[in-house]
Amino acid sequence: VVCCEKRKTMGQSESSQAHDGATNQFARPQIPVGKTLICIAGFKISHHTGRAQKLAVLIQKALPSTYETWFHWDWPDNFRAFLSGLQENEFKAAFEKNADHAVKGHRTSPIVWLEKSNEDGSREIIPLGGRDKFCEWVLENVVNDIEDEKAKTQITNLAKSSPGFTEVWVNEAPGTQQGATAAAAVKEEKKEEKKEEEEKKEEK
């Protein structure tokens, strides 16, 4: 089940942005049309979450032209508040289309969903569920697209097996889209600083 949501536009009021999603403080960047953003949120300490994160990273590396990643890790109370925000806002349309949607009652870590951009600027949001549902999706939709046999075998084995307790500590490195966003922000900041310096020189 897919839900479509228009991206917030410049000039939109803070109140309408808040209504648009309790998670807007963790807004995901606009993903290029044709790509899929794998989003995972969960506890900082959780072997199921650690396995999901590991899978997402490997998938993105194996198919970089198709997938990007976005992650959010937190402590239990904060994560559950974040999850409730997703269920009440971003996932709302999917739940309205399917009253029995499995993610509607999801309460555990992690939560995995996909985001895609449409030509009209809207985004498709596809709630998957926990690690188990993510693994099912990987086996059905990803592994056959991977040409590198070593990567395909590794991803398949991880998707078919249960996580071990050595994976309990989640790797908190940012997703690929978060890294790109941070780099763009730094570049813009440096650009502004240079502009200010040039303006000061002109004033002198």
Morphology: globular
* Uncertain stretches of 5 or more adjacent residues: 5-24, 182-186
Binned, the helix content reads: 40-55%
Percentage of residues in DSSP E strands: 15-25%
Major sheet: arrangement of strands: 1-5-4-2-3
How large is the radius of gyration? Answer: 19 Å
Give the N-terminus to C-terminus distance in angstroms.
61 Å
Class derived from helix and strand content: alpha+beta
Question: How many helices does DSSP assign?
Answer: 7
- Report the major sheet: 5 strands, mixed
Total individual domains: 2
Count the strands?
5
Element-by-element helix/strand order? EHEHEHHEEHHH
Mean pLDDT: 84
Structure description:
The protein is of the alpha+beta class and 204 residues long. It has two domains: 3-173, no CATH class; 174-204. It is 47% helix and 17% strand. The protein has helices at 14-20, 47-62, 76-90, 92-97, 131-141, 149-160, 176-203, and strands at 3-6, 36-43, 67-74, 111-117, 122-129. A five-stranded mixed β-sheet has the order 1-5-4-2-3, with helices on both faces. Helix 2 links the parallel strand 2 (36-43) and strand 3 (67-74). The protein starts with a strand and ends with a helix. 28% of the residues are buried. The model is unreliable at 5-24 and 182-186 (pLDDT under 50). Residues 186-204 have a biased composition (Basic and acidic residues).
